[in-house]
Amino acid sequence: MATGNKTRTVRLTLTYLILLFVATCIIYPLLWTIGASFNPGNSLVSTSIIPKNPTLDHYRELFAGKESLQYGHWYMNSLKISLFTMLGTVVSVSFTAYAFSRFRFKGRQQALTLFLLLQMIPQFSALIALFVLAQLLGMMNSHWLLILLYIGGQIPMNTYLMKGYMDSIPVDLDESAKLDGAGHTRIFIQIILPLCRPMLAVVAMNGFTGPLGDFVLASTILRTQEAYTLPIGLFNLVNEAMGASYTTFAAGAILISIPVAVLFVLLQKHFVSGLTAGGTKG
Amino acid sequence: MQHRKIGLVLSIIPGLGQLYHRQWMKGGLLLAVSIAFWIAFADLLNMGLWGIVTLGTEVPRDNSIFLLAQGIIAIIVLLFGIGLYVFNLRDAYRNGEKRDQGVRPDSLWSDYRNLMDQGYPYLVSGPSLFLLIFAVIFPILFSFALAFTNYDLYHSPPAKLADWVGFSTFAQIFTVDIWRSTFFDVLSWTIVWTLVASTLQVSLGIFLAVLVNQKEVQFKRVIRTIFVLPWAVPGFVTILVFAGLFNDSFGAINLDILSLFGLDPVLWLTDEKWTRVALVFMQGWLGFPYVFLVTTGVLQSIPNDLYEAATIDGASMFAKFRHITMPMVLIAMSPIIITQFTFNFNNFNIIYLFNGGGPSVPGSNAGGTDILVSWIYKLTMQSGQYALAAALTILLSIFVIAIALWQFRRTNAFKEGA
Amino acid sequence: MKKTITYMTVLSSLALTASLAACGPGEEAQGSKEQSSNKEAKLIVWEDIEKGEGIKDIVSKFERDNDVDVKVIEKPYAKQIEDLRLDGPAGTGPDLLTMPGDQIGTAVTEGIIKEMDVPKEVQSIYTDVALDSQKVNGKLYGVPKAVETTVLYYNKKLVSEDKLPKTLEEWYALSKKTTTGQSFGFLALFDQIYYAQSVLSGYGGYIFKQDDQGKYQTKEVGLANTGAIEGASYIQKFYKEKLFPAGIIGEQGINVLESLFTEGKAAAIISGPWNVEPFTKAGIDFGITKLPELENGKNMSSFIGVKSYNVSAYSKRSELASKLALYLTNAENSKKRFEITKEVPAVSALAEDSAVTKSPAAQAVAEQSKFSELTPNVPEMNEVWKPVDAALQTIATGKAEPEAAMKQAVKTIDGQIKAKHGTK
Fold first, then answer.
1. Can you spell out the DSSP letters for C13-76?
2. Angle A171-A173-A179 (CA atoms, 0-180°, nearest 5)?
3. Where are the alpha helices (DSSP H) in chain A?
């Protein structure tokens, strides 16, 4: 038993060492960003993780109301777009998934295959088309158009996930409700949806983070500074050949990352079960 | 003359057949809808269909690209129209048939009941489908159409018109040296990138999940929370942060970390090989938490009896891992693993935001780390090679779809799911 | 059943044919295109980034005189053409914009900027070189707003003014002496053709051969001739001997270079006049002069970049826009702009103006301009930048030998010109 104990200690030590290493790798860049945001100056050159003369200048600059840096505006735009995309995605996806999961109708098979294929082709590979569409509709710079496009883009994959989850809910439940005289919509809202909560959380999360991660589609449709979302605005901040400001970017990045990350961590257990189920069924 | 024939013929003008069957409401509705359709879309259909055939005849009045878009929308609308029309004809015929057999044609009420019951799935998925058509299908069709035109710098509105050129753009990809060599360079890196990055993030995720899941490990919650962070922070932020960290001369990685170990600075952003390495590491960093979380879920669902039985049989730690944990995890997670691969295949953000697809490499039209999607993006937005970009999009789509279908069939998830 | 289907097909196709009978744009369709939304009736101007201040007063005077609202939006000038492609047709575009001279050819090819009708006597106020950059096939497509060319900045604390090296070789010697790994002597972004051309051209390299009329022969690229290769080898020396840090190579290089100079870690750098402002603000005691001479006695050349005001082809009020362009660039207002933005104007009369002669930066630019060449403004120029930059980068990092790299680059350029511009 002594040797068993010894190998156990070695194994555990090794485990902790590895975990510690990974945790450092994760935390370091994040801490560095926080450090950078308090560093005076603009460039990377003199940036260090613990600033010598910390300053709040960069945070102030974000809200100083410069025309090329309308951080508050972008923040609200991003929030608005993400929230509505989330809402729209959840509603449209759950209804569609319900239809696909519970009904056998003409074109179902083809539609499912289509969904499967569509999620493989990145939506933004057709940028010009979306740009032209926006113009034809006279909706350049329109957040609503962007939201609709995002929702549309979210539908195939999330419908697939949701449908998979609904398939695992026994049909008996529907049947007995039907015997009680409930209509489709009532069965859906009162019985199916509550059971899908974990997957709804996943879909909502996808809907929320999708727009936050998109830079290409948004920059094609949104053409004025006021209309920008955070990804466009922050990207420009780092990438303008002249006047690039890494430190201001860091400040802006932190103000968006912290709330989102906190929300994620708090809600994580709600979507983990959904993810596990969804991921393993598909 | 039988009712069905009369109904059918009358329904050439939608609704008349139904009116003839004394289905007043339905007939009226159909008639009204078709008139409205006609009034609303006559212009669009006229312009669109003319436009998609000719792509315009006169500069500056006609804009080929707009005409193409209108044309595609017109075709979509027309398909809807034809659908409605065919429905109208069939309906008139079927109800005529019923009358011929002496059965009363459907009443509006029973039609409504029918719609609510059999039409229910169409009704609830209709709006989604509509969105999908305009947000996803229309753009893809447009892109595909574009590939068969010569839309580029020299054939672009407002100065010039574009024209249909058939497969010549595709031919160019394979015959013009610079396109061909770039295409194969980019394609091979795309494949390598997809395989390496996805494998790394998946195996890292699984490995860490197993580590953390050991019974004796303390502080599981804290560890898990930390491990979720890369997933919780918006990706574009982290990628841009990494771009700073990896800076050749002033990034913290060269200055602080490598120098700590007495290593020479590495040219992360200017040496193509190192940029690739950095990208793969970053994707590992960004991508493992998701796999980690899901694996943790799967691990917790593996019944303990299995392990206990194995322990009784005297199986070693490693044997248990190989014969119980690994198969369970892999089987349960194969769909997720596939998603990781397709995701990375199209992972534009990391490539573009990190180093703009760079560094530039000699003899290639794309940057050293450009994958297909980012190259397509550059061709479109920066060098005005629209048709070429569209043709590449088609090739890319075919490639991904072929692989995906093959994979899904193999794992059977496809048959099961559909 | 089969019969019925045939029936229906025939009927549907009948209906379809009926609907297609009259096709094509009628008068109506044309009318509807005109109704683009320009309700606010503001004149939109895209000004270069951080240069809006320079035209503020001029614009407000123009607004009063012409009873019009002008909105000035700042955007990096080299990217305005990309935005114009999208914003122009979208109706969110500018009436007047600014771009580098070498993009004019592309913009004209695409038809997104308008020809300008400028009387001969007005044209004559601009310097010839600057005006030439705005001409495509003899037609004028813009008015020059400023000229710039690279010059040498030196830190007076690190090199004394009277002992300023005169030749690149002397700078090299100085770098050899002073470089420590933390601080450097002379630095330049020689991994980019925009800067490297200063050396290559001095040795006999050129981008496109010009015929007698000055027309660019885009089939003859001279970046791999013996001169160019000699120049490239000379450049490589600086990198090989670690006189240039690796960090100034690549896309972020420019930021690093400027930071090194502002932090007093570089004795001298080659950069453009746009840095006078930031460097002054950073509080460095610097001097500015023309580029040094090469070994063969020739002065280092440079590209003259002409920034111009151009009228968007999508502008609904092109005449007014054009009027504003001329107003902004007339002698009086050019001087005003110069005083604020320090961008050297393209008006010949101002060369002797005391405001300009007193400014060392403007002097240096004027002096250097004598040894400079225009960036070719043909669309084919787009294919030159990247491949040569890539080649120079590999030369800088030592991954390739100059001859092989430059030959490869020219091959790529030729290939790209054939591939992208072959359909002309």
1. HHHHHHHHSS-S--HHHHHHHHT---TT-PEEEEEPTT-HHHHHHHHHHHHHHHT--EEEEE--
2. 105
3. 2-38, 57-62, 71-102, 108-118, 127-136, 143-167, 171-179, 184-186, 193-195, 197-213, 216-221, 230-239, 246-281
Virtual torsion, Cα C403, C404, C406, C410, nearest 10 deg: 130
Distance of CA B372 to the CA centre of its chain: 14
Question: A23, B227: Cβ pair inside 8 Å?
Answer: yes
Please choose, from the candidates C356, C329, C348, C351, the residue with its C-alpha nearest in 3D space to the C-alpha of residue C127: C348
Task: Name the region of C115 (left: φ>0; alpha: ψ -120 to 50; beta: rest).
Answer: beta
**Torsion of the alpha carbons at C178, C181, C184 and C185, rounded to the nearest 10:** 40
In which region does residue B54 sit, left (phi positive, over 0), alpha (psi from -120 to 50) or beta (all else)? alpha
- Are C75 and C307 in contact by the 8 Å Cβ rule? The answer is no
Chain A interface, best mutation among C92, C257, C258, C274, by max A CB count within 10 A = C92
| Interface predicted TM-score (ipTM) over 0.90 | no
* B87 interfacial to chain C (CB closer than 8 Å): no
- Is the separation of the CB atoms in C159 and C266 below 8 Å? no
- Which residue of chain A is at minimal alpha-carbon distance from B237? A253
- Per-residue pLDDT tens, chain A, 282 aa: give them: 456 678 888 888 999 999 999 999 999 999 988 888 888 776 666 666 777 778 888 898 888 877 778 899 999 999 999 999 999 999 999 999 999 998 888 888 888 888 888 888 877 778 888 888 888 888 888 999 999 999 999 999 899 889 988 988 888 888 888 888 888 888 999 889 998 988 898 899 889 988 998 888 998 889 888 899 999 988 888 876 555 678 888 899 999 999 888 888 888 777 777 777 665 543
Q: Residues 114-153, chain B: which have Cβ within 8 Å of C?
A: 150, 152-153
Model-level pTM? 0.84
Asked if B75 contacts A142 with a C-beta cutoff of 8 angstroms, the reply is: no
Instruction: For C314, name the nearest residue in chain B, comparing CA atoms only.
Output: B158
Using a CB-CB cut-off of 8 Å, the residues of chain B touching C379 are 153
